[in-house]
Structure formats: structure tokens, C-alpha cells
TrEMBL record, chains A, B:
Pfam families, sorted: DGOK
Source species of the chain: Sphingomonas mollis
Superkingdom per UniProt: Bacteria
InterPro entries referenced in this protein's UniProt entry, alphabetically: DGOK (IPR007729), DGOK_C (IPR042257), DGOK_N (IPR042258)
Protein name: 2-dehydro-3-deoxygalactonokinase
């Protein structure tokens, strides 16, 4: 039996395809590195045709950077407050009646997202987060979304993951950032450094400490991670005890959970794959 | 008439050589890109011999990264409080009686400097800054030094310039950071962003603003510069009206002066070349 539709989470560097049945169940899934930057100009129809060859000749619903100016067809941003129904009402049809792209969401801050909105609203639709909540989606660009009455009412993005990668791969700290990053003492030292509110100074202090033999070089990566993630969470000014629903793979989710606890908040882990599936299936049904 | 000695400000990527007479006057000077990273292993004696061939067969006094583990001979750091006499008493002789290297300075923070100490203490020795002062040396790694009774009593380094270069050259903001950076309205917008204390969020906001057409792309580089330099100055927690002596070339000095004024401080420009010459000549005389 063929799937009801194919859902594609199509990002800048990666892509994940799900074959979904009429009840919202996953029949098959595949992940590869064919993000939009690896697709040549005019190459999107062939990419989608290959997915149909593999999973079934059914409608396709795409989300993510595939709807950006660098993607297939630009899907204009929906303004906050944004619901799943708003997204479903603003689908852009790349192939009429056959392939649609979910729009991103914009905030007047200014801020923008593409792809995260499906996961965020899907978490609420699936009951994984309440309809009034603060959701955090850590990553290259970490998203913090305020959800009220089931709508994204506002959100902010921090460049946390991208800065970490730049420092690890291309900075004066690169030689020292070779150790593991996990929720251990060095990461918590980094969270304490973030509390000083002097990140530019603390970053150089990591080099100085390593040069002077004051800090173990193996700890530098974890401490820088703690400094950046701790700074990210501090920028939210969480109310005491505030609950934060975190959508991420387990390793990164554990780091953000530790930072949220350190800042006096209460983290709750949410299954981000389940959230995406619930969101994309809901949009599919609303658009039908 | 030959010079009394050659002074070499020998950094990671650049080198400046001064031929100095017995009165501390500059007879000749030359600047090139033969920083320590461009000198092959074992190549330092030949480099210094070439300088002597050109300027005169006299003693050579070097400062900067040439005294680091990646340089010619490692010159251990002198601890704070550090005076010119302390530096002169701790010269490392790379060629006995012929070529010496000035040590760097360390702070328990932890923090380290190499080369900047000559300029900082030279500014005081030359009367360009008082013997109790806060000095700022902006750059790839900006140095903030507390001077008391003519000694460096403590200092902090911020990774400001390096982060700006990473963001301009290798980040998601690179496409937008093509405009000029000067002390204009966009730079001051960046200083105001820094006051929010949310730099990770403000950085992504620059991308979002450009994507949404809210901000002129030509302004992004200046605004990011204002955000980073403003954050650097904020990390100092300047007392109201605090005087900051700034040692830098005029363009960068103007940006830091604007940020210091924005934070309620009083900037004073110091000629950084004159400061270096005064410092290295004083060390030369003290070591004689």
C-alpha cells in the first residue's frame, strides 16, 4: 500500500524524507546529505521525482530552507502569531497539486525561521508540550519560541552553535578545543563563566589558561560550550522555575537542560522527530 | 653613524624594525609581513642577520610573539605587577650579548600578553599616559591594562577583533558584512544593541533584518562592529567619567573612543608608535 504523502525536512546541508500513511504513521524514512546547497539550479524536480520513485508516486510536502531564496521556490514568511492552520493556508505549490512547501515564520524583532515552525507547533499538536509554553530548539541557530493558545506568538534566535563551530574550527582556540563536550564539570565551569557576563573576555581566558597550564586543554571545548550555551540561556532572562521544553537530539538536549537548570528553570525533553511528524501531518490534513 | 641598537616589534604576522640612536631617536624604520609564522624553523638568526646587514651591526632588542613557544626562544612571562625595570631584568638572550627578547606579562585572571607590555609601559614612560591609568589597546585581541604607580597591576584581554573577523569572513553574516565600518550611525546602532546584553541574539537579528529588508545590508558590518566593540567596553564596567587611554591606529582608536564615550567614559588617544619607541628604548637603557 502506498503512503498517503511524503514529508521532507529539507535543510541547508541535510534532508530527511518520511513516507507517511493515512493515519500519520511512518512507513519508511531516509536521511541523506542532499541539503539545498548540494542541489544544482533547476535540480529540485528531479530530486523529488527520485523520492517518488523510491517511496511512491504520491503528493510531497516539504519544509525548511527549500522554501528560501536559495531553495526551490521562495515561500514568503507568515507573521506571528502563527498556527498550523496559518501555515497550511499559505503553502506554496512548487508543482501544482503535487508538491507543496511550508512557509517560514517571521517575528518583528526582527527574526526569521524556516522548518523549525513545523516541529514547534507539532510538539503542541502532539501534546508533547502544552499550548502555552516556552520551547527551545538548540542548534546552529538556537530558536526560542513563545507559544500561546497553540500559536507561535514570538521567537528569538541565537547564533550559539555557529559561533561554537567557528571557534572550534578556525580560531586561536582551535588548537585547544579538541576534547569532548558533555554535561560534566568542565561544561558547568563554562556555565559559571557565562554568569560573569563577560564572554569576550572569558573566551580569551581559555587560551591564557591553557598557555599558562592553569586549565587542562582537554576541558577547553566543554568549557567554551558551557560559556556559549550558558550565555544563550541567560539572554532569555528566564523567570524563576520557568519550564522550557527542549527539542533536540539527546546529547545537545542534555547540555541545554543543564544550562536551563543552572539558570533556575525547569527543562522538559521533547522528541523532536515525533514533533516534526505530528506537525507536518497536521498541516497535510489541514490543507487537504 | 650606526644606530645604538635595533628594536623589533615582532608579531605573529607582521614585523616592524626600528634603527634607534643613542638619544632614542629613530634613524630608520621598516615594516614587512615576516611575522613569526613566516619564519622557518631555525630561521631567526638569518632574519636578524639580514636586519643588521641593512641597518647596522649593532645589538638587537625584540618584543612580541618572537618570545612565544612558536617563536625563536621562549621568554617566560613576568608576573603582575610588572614595570619596565622588571622587563629589563628578565630579558632572554637569544644570541648572548647580541640579541635579546623582552618577556611577556601574565595575570592570575588568567591572562597573558606579549609585545603589548612595551607599548603600555612606554606610554607611561613617555608621559603620554599618567602613571595611574586604564589603558586600552584594541586589536585582534584587545588588551585593557590597569596601570598603578607606573606598573601593570592587572589586565584583561577580549577576543573582539578575532570574532569580528570570523563573522565577517566565515559566517552566515559574511554575505551581508561587505559595507564600511566607521564611527557613523550604523556603528552607534550597534553600540545600542550591545546595551541590550544579548549579543548572540543580536547577531542573528542582523541576518533576519537583512533577509526581511528591515536593515540596509551596507550597514551590517558597522553594526556588528558596534555590537562587539560595545560589548567589549561594557565588559569593563567603566566607572562614570572614567578616563581610558587608547593606543591604536586612528581608525580603530576612533571606534573604541566612541564606544567609551557611549559607556560614559572619557577616551584619550595615545600615539602607539611613540609609546612603543619610548618603552623599548627605556628597556634598552635599563638593561645596559
Amino acid at each position: 500500500m502506498p503512503p498517503a504523502f511524503l514529508a521532507v525536512d529539507w535543510g541547508t546541508t541535510n534532508r530527511r524524507c518520511y513516507a507517511i500513511d493515512a493515519d500519520g504513521g511512518v512507513i519508511a524514512t531516509d536521511r541523506d546529505a542532499r541539503g539545498i546547497l548540494s542541489v544544482p539550479a533547476g535540480g529540485f524536480p528531479a530530486e523529488v521525482a527520485a523520492m517518488r520513485d523510491r517511496f511512491g508516486d504520491v503528493p510531497v510536502l516539504c519544509a525548511g530552507m527549500v522554501g528560501s531564496t536559495r531553495g526551490w521556490v521562495e515561500a514568503p514568511y507568515v507573521a506571528c502569531p502563527a498556527t498550523l492552520a496559518d501555515l497550511a493556508a499559505s503553502l506554496i505549490w512548487a508543482e501544482p497539486g503535487r508538491t507543496a512547501i511550508v512557509p517560514g515564520v517571521k517575528d518583528d524583532a526582527p527574526d526569521v525561521m524556516r522548518g523549525e515552525e513545523v516541529q514547534l507547533l507539532g510538539a503542541v499538536a502532539a501534546g508533547l508540550a502544552p499550548s502555552d509554553a516556552l520551547l527551545c530548539q538548540p542548534g546552529t541557530h538556537s530558536k526560542w519560541a513563545m507559544i500561546a493558545n497553540g500559536a507561535i506568538t514570538g521567537f528569538r534566535t541565537a547564533m550559539t552553535g555557529e559561533l561554537f563551530a567557528l571557534l572550534r574550527d578556525r580560531s586561536l582556540l582551535t588548537d585547544f578545543m579538541t576534547g569532548p563536550v558533555d554535561d560534566g564539570p568542565a561544561f558547568h565551569d563554562g556555565l559559571a563563566l557565562a554568569d560573569r557576563g563577560t564572554p569576550l573576555t572569558s573566551l580569551f581566558g581559555e587560551r591564557a589558561g591553557a598557555v599558562l597550564g592553569r586549565n587542562a586543554a582537554a576541558d577547553v571545548a566543554a568549557r567554551v560550550s558551557g560559556l556559549l550555551i550558558g550565555s544563550d540561556v541567560r539572554e532569555r532572562s528566564l523567570a524563576p522555575g520557568a519550564t522550557v521544553h527542549i527539542l533536540a537530539e539527546p546529547g545537545l538536549a542534555a547540555l541545554y537542560a543543564a544550562a536551563v537548570r543552572h539558570a533556575g528553570g525547569t527543562p522538559v525533553a521533547v522528541d523532536s522527530h515525533a514533533a516534526f511528524l505530528a506537525g507536518i501531518t497536521a498541516i497535510w490534513r489541514l490543507a487537504a
